[in-house]
Amino acid sequence: MQIVHAGANSPYLTSKDIALTVVSSLPDMTAPHHEMTEEDIENIISDFAAAALRVHEAGFDAVQLHGAHGYLMSQFASPLFNHRTDKWGGKP
Question: What's this model's pTM, rounded to 2 decimal places?
């Protein structure tokens, strides 16, 4: 089973005028959004862990964390999306 968080890459949320959860606010981002707090990030990590547990309990053999194609996990690794200066960003 694959689990994913789209982050800033969610056309569905933007079509419904729902604020995107983004790694960093970007000056050219026109869609409604809010930059994640450290608490938001910790909550998403917990949500991924809870989802993985549900996948296991449902009988799946494996779980895949989708970290490509511009979704949230890859946004953290991208200097184009991640302009944070806390422990979740900055220079390696």
Answer: 0.86
